Amino acid sequence: MDDEIPAHITQIIRAAVAAPSGDNSQPWHFVYRAPGTIEFHAHPEKDHPMFNVDDSGTLIALGAAVENASLEARALGYQPTISVSVAEPGSLAATLQLAPGGDISADDASLQEVIHHRVSNRKAYANRSFDNMHRQALLQEVNSVPGVSFLLLEDRDAMRRTARNLTNMERIALSYKKVHHLFFAGIFWSDERNEAGEPGLHIKTLELPPPAQALFRILRHWKVAQALARIGFPNFVAKTNAAQNASASALGCVTSPTLDAKAYFNTGRLLERLWLRSTALGMSFQVVTGLLFLTRHMEREGDVTIFSAQDVAHSQETYKNIGAAFGVGANHPVITFRVGYGKPPTRRSQRMAPVIEVVHS
Ligand SMILES: Cc1cc2nc3c(=O)[nH]c(=O)nc-3n(C[C@H](O)[C@H](O)[C@H](O)COP(=O)(O)O)c2cc1C
Question: Whose CA is nearest to atom 7 of ligand 1?
Answer without folding.
Answer: 288
